[in-house]
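Late entry, evening session. Most of the bench is empty. Finally got around to the prediction I had been postponing all week. Sequence below, unchanged from the version circulated by S.P.
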Amino acid sequence: MRGELSYSKINILSTRPFHEDDKLTILLKESGFNVDNIPAIRLVPRIFEIKNDYDYVILTSPAAANFFLSKSITSSKIISIGKGTTDQIEKFGVTPFITLEKSYSEEVLSFLKTIDHDSRKKILYPIGNLTENSILNWKFNFLEISKLIIYENCSAEYNNELKKRLDSSFYNLVIFTSSSTVEVFFNLYGINKKYSIAVIGDKTEAKLNSLGIRTDIKPISPSIESLYNSIKLFFKKC
């Protein structure tokens, strides 16, 4: 693409799970981009019960926060991963004990090492069925980490109209914010790189690279605001 390109002429597909207050979609539309929000996966809650005897709860996504806190307002200290997760937690009138902003596996590991070692602490890790479980591989004598699957990531139905748009180069950009979305999306529609690709972080990019697909946009920090600014900058340079 050459020359000045008006945002109003740029068509973007967001594959994020649908949220009525999806901040990324709102920001992009307010800037004049044309955005279709067509999720590649559906998040389906599971029925679950918990004992309120955990010292900490790790919530790694807005979806995990929503499904967990809609069923149980916990007295445990909440470790929130990312501002988007914290925003969702606060909608339930809950303030996280700490919000970690960087690559969550590294920063969570650093935080857990600072926990008081005098007594064994119990940590609950509510996740989706496709969430990567690197946290569960860590071994600490003073910690007991338990996972709880609270929602399922289910593939969306095949969308014939979307397939036609993808094949006709209708979209200038497709956004992925999770590795599970990448896998489902390309299983549905095949690899046909007629558009630029934006990701939110390293794990999503790694999944694309494993499929032989290059990423065009990745923000410096894995946040919605940073991704939004990176998208704007990318099209200003086109």
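Two things to note before I forget:
The first strand starts at residue 11 and ends at 14.
The two ends are 6 Å apart (CA to CA).
Will write this up properly tomorrow.
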